[in-house]
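Please decode residue identities from the backbone states below.
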């Protein structure tokens, strides 16, 4: 690697939103050829800091230096001109356009003539070869995999001349094979002298790929450490401010012999909001005291499956059974009355009503809330809400707090408390820990295991392989709306499941 030099330096960055100080006098530097991990719980200030660096927000105080020279970044265009690029969690691509056409949009030259197109293509092919980025330049983005779309985002930044690349949770929606490819690309970028800011909640990958780690908590830097000197416990202590041992997940065995499934789907088909059929003849049973994990790349029908099995989406074909009794999917009442509870993927708009106070959200999906003389008994409902908040450590000012004001972790704990308060027979959990910090994630996983131990049958949809393998009794793999395989976690591997998620039968290929 070339001689170490500072590509980027932030000094005393401070940013407040009203009385809330999101960033408090933060210093950060990034060297050439370095992968610098930026960690912290939700609300720690990571996103605010990166949005300041990328010109989306403007700091109240502090300075930014590029290669030792102070710069003023007022917009993303300024950031790109100074060689700073950001790959957001939600990609900034026009789906109908090809990679080449998306990259053309970054420039000022108009129109896209044949000569201009060939010029862009030649430069992109050179970048692909230099950094080991294999990507289809000419197919519409909507036809490409998530991993391929992410590579287009990286290629876009390299095309603009980015020297510092911010990768925000880049592996959150990738399967293991795509993660391997991404890490190889990141390593190639570092070898060529680029500086990488790597934001992730996954400590294993941080420890495997980064050179240095900076930890934020409550808007302040609470730790800096060379990765070679770090371990999970040290990082967690910096993040949460106390010594916390990583909990051991203990799964209890279950035996479905001679049991009746609580919930059963038989050749179920369903359409999404666009009217496109995404679920294609799925049969699946959930038994008492078991966790069935669903592994699938997003958009392969798993969300529609969860909604049909929770009674909130009508099946286009097929049948649903609760305790071997057929129920209609036209309305949720039969599912609710038979103890089928739902923790949806969208906690903000499906799992809750943002403008409602917590006590009103508490009685959602409840056909028999507390009443007094035929009217809702709000005194009792508020007491129930307060008790649940205490039991599940939901941090808010009280039951009157608007749901919109809760952090993601606190809102998810509230939704889980509401679902489990009804003593369900089955629980449909869709991405229950997505976007949560470490402590909230551990808490939710513990509650899922406690529910299983009490006899609840659980359908767990998750993009976190560690979670799926740690919690599930069996893992069902979906591809293009169909079940393509089922494995026992103890007899399988992440890579095998990842291959099946891409439509590859690893047993046949082995």
């Amino acid at each position: 690697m070339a001689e170490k030099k500072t590509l980027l330096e932030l000094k005393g960055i401070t940013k407040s939103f009203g009385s809330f100080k999101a960033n408090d006098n933060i210093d950060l530097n990034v060297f050439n050829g370095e992968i610098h991990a930026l960690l912290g719980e939700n609300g720690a200030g990571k996103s605010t800091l990166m949005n300041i660096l990328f010109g989306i927000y403007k700091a109240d105080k502090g300075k930014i230096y590029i290669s030792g020279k102070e710069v003023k970044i007022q917009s993303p265009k300024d950031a790109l001109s100074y060689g700073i690029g950001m790959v957001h969690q939600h990609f900034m691509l026009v789906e109908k356009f090809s990679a080449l056409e998306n990259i053309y949009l970054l420039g000022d030259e108009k129109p896209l003539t044949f000569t201009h197109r060939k010029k862009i293509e030649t430069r992109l092919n050179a970048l692909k070869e230099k950094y080991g980025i294999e990507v289809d330049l000419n197919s519409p983005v909507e036809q490409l995999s998530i991993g391929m779309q992410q590579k287009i985002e990286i290629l876009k930044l390299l095309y603009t001349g980015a020297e510092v690349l911010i990768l925000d949770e880049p592996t959150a929606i990738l399967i293991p094979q795509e993660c391997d490819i991404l890490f190889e690309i990141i390593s190639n970028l570092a070898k060529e002298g680029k500086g990488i800011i790597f934001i992730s909640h996954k400590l294993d990958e941080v420890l495997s790929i980064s050179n240095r780690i900076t930890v934020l908590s409550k808007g302040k830097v609470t730790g800096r450490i060379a990765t070679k000197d770090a371990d999970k416990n040290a990082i967690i202590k910096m993040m949460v401010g106390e010594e916390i041992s990583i909990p051991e997940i203990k799964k209890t065995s279950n035996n479905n012999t001679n049991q009746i499934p609580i919930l059963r789907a038989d050749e179920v088909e369903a359409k999404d909001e666009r009217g496109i059929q995404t679920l294609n003849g799925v049969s699946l049973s959930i038994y008492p005291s078991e966790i069935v994990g669903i592994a699938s790349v997003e958009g392969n029908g798993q969300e529609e499956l969860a909604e049909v099995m929770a009674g909130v989406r009508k099946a286009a074909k097929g049948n649903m059974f609760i305790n071997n009794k057929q129920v209609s999917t036209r309305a949720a009442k039969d599912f609710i009355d038979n103890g089928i509870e739902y923790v949806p993927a969208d906690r903000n708009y499906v799992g809750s009503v943002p403008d409602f106070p917590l006590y009103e959200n508490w009685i959602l999906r409840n056909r028999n809330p507390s009443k007094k003389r035929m009217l809702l008994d709000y005194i009792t409902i508020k007491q129930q809400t307060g008790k649940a908040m205490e039991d599940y450590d939901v941090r808010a000012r009280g039951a009157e707090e608007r749901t919109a004001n809760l952090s993601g972790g606190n809102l998810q704990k509230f939704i889980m408390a509401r679902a489990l308060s009804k003593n369900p027979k089955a629980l449909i959990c869709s991405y229950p820990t997505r976007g949560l910090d470490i402590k909230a994630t551990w808490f939710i996983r513990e509650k899922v295991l406690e529910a299983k131990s009490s006899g609840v049958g659980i359908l767990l949809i998750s993009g976190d392989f560690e979670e799926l393998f740690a919690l599930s009794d069996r893992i069902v793999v979906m591809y293009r709306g169909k079940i393509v395989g089922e494995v026992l976690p103890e007899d399988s591997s992440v890579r095998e499941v990842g291959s099946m998620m891409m439509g590859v039968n690893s047993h046949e290929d082995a």
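Observation: DSSP finds 17 helices and 22 strands in the chain.
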